[in-house]
Amino acid sequence: MSEAELLEKLRNIDSVALANLLNPNPGKLHELSVFVPKPTMQQKVRAAAWISGMGIHQAGVDTQARLMWPLTKFSELDVSREAARTLGGALVALVEALPPQQIEQIWIDQDERLSFVDEFVSLDDKSRHRAE
């Protein structure tokens, strides 16, 4: 099969099928048989932070269930994705509530931390031109 044929097949593949090809193992599947009370938003965010920070394999089913409520059937891949979505949404809401001066300071701090990237890009470009 040529590269062009392979690319054409990939363009036409269903996104869910592609996700399953890239990650065929969604991790453990959980089906809860116990009642889980409705968590607060703080509990959901705390669960999402734990799962994202420590990894899905360090989170118990109760932590995963708190995040995934009201679902009673989910995979570890579902939980990991929901943890990222929940944290992302919470952080965006927090940033939107910041005053402009704090947002500017975050940009300045990040620019300082990442300023070394320009140095490496410059060095990499110079070494690439020498090799050619």
List keywords for this structure.
about 130 residues; mainly alpha; about 70% helix; 2 strands; 7 helices
Structure description:
- The chain has 7 helices and 2 strands.
- A two-stranded antiparallel sheet has the order 1-2.
- The two termini are 32 Å apart.
- The protein has helices at 3-11, 15-22, 41-54, 61-68, 76-97, 100-114, 116-131; strands spanning 29-31, 73-75.
- Helix 3 (41-54) packs across helix 4 and helix 3 (41-54) crosses helix 5 (76-97).
Task: Summarize the entry for a quick read.
The protein is mainly alpha-helical. 70% of the residues lie in helices and 5% in strands.
Mean pLDDT: 83
User: Low-confidence spans: pLDDT under 50, at least 5 residues?
Assistant: none
Strand content: under 5%
Could you tell me how far the N terminus lies from the C terminus, measured between alpha carbons in angstroms?
Answer: 32 Å
Strand order of the largest sheet: 1-2
Write the layout of secondary structure elements.
Elements lengths: L2 H9 L3 H8 L6 E3 L9 H14 L6 H8 L4 E3 H22 L2 H15 L1 H16 L1
Antiparallel strand pairs: 1-2
